[in-house]
Amino acid sequence: MSELAARAGLVGVVTLWCALLWRARPALRQPHLRGLWVTVLAATTAITLFQPGIVTALTSAGVDVHTVSLVRNLVGVLSAGLVLLFVIDAGRSPRLRRWVAVGLTASLVSLLVLDLLPVDQSSAGPASVQRPASAAAAYWLILITAHLLGDAVALVVCWRYSLRTTERDLVWSLRLFAVGSVLALVFWSGYLCHLYGLAPGLLPWLSLVMAAHGFLRAASLLVPTATALARSATALRTTWRLWPLWRDLVTAVPHVALASPRRTRLHEVLWPRYPLALQAHRQTIETYDALLTLQQYVQPDAYEKAHRHARRAGVRDDRLACAALAGAVGQARRAVLVGVPPSVPRPLPGVTHGSPQTLLGIARMWPAMTNALPCCRRTA
Asked: Whole-angstrom Cα distance, residue 188 to residue 52?
């Protein structure tokens, strides 16, 4: 169990540091993200110094175990104070922020003073690398009370604000931070019991709780990154699925396209000429414009004929409308290519106010329906 806890702790620490490095540049540039980043940085430092493997490496390098524990405790209390400062509204509670700053300073000074006082350290044991730097009861209470207070306030405030805001990224960041605070409360409550000997075998389990807490803190930082990746994946999927339809339509109606299609869609998605979101948006708009233009070449009853053809071919009911549109548009496209003159536009159902989902539905049925109807002949 101890080995599992140590491995989970190291994985959590690595995840936290990777998240911090990844989000450092945007967070430090934006004031509303800076507080969260600095708060997680302080917590990550304390969590790092809690890992037995890290402490062993530092002691092998000549650093005293007591020094490591003291730094861990001070940084941990600092992180608790930063959590309070982060969740308190600076504009509405300047006096409260000042009181928090005073309390934080007093707690740090008290820990330093108590650490300097002579106390019987025999209860700590020589290999207690995860215990506080001092065996004084007052030291333990200041350390753990600071964490419990910071995490309890963070839980209440973050969850309350997550219910008020409508910004999706902020909602998820606050809720993940709040759930991480719940795990921190569990850890520090269990840690207090462990220190007083009420649960001597609890420490490995508490290490797993702290590792999960670290993952949630990292996740709260990476919500914007996850959202950006999800948007990129959606744009990539749209570009990939829409490409055959878009290529065929802009080839027939080239004036709607800003740039001509490349040879394959692999070229289009692997070496995009624009950012993925813009690429998907551009292809969607150009496909829609091409559909509007091709309405001048739609033959009478083309939609109904394509609909009947699709039904006979066994197309699912929920795809019949898109299949009929694909068949009618395919016939209109071939009419343009053979030189049939335009006529009065015949609006197609669902195209005038078409959505990206409609276009993707047409694209899905395009390979099967593009040649479903006979081609019109050019009149002399």
From this structure: 18
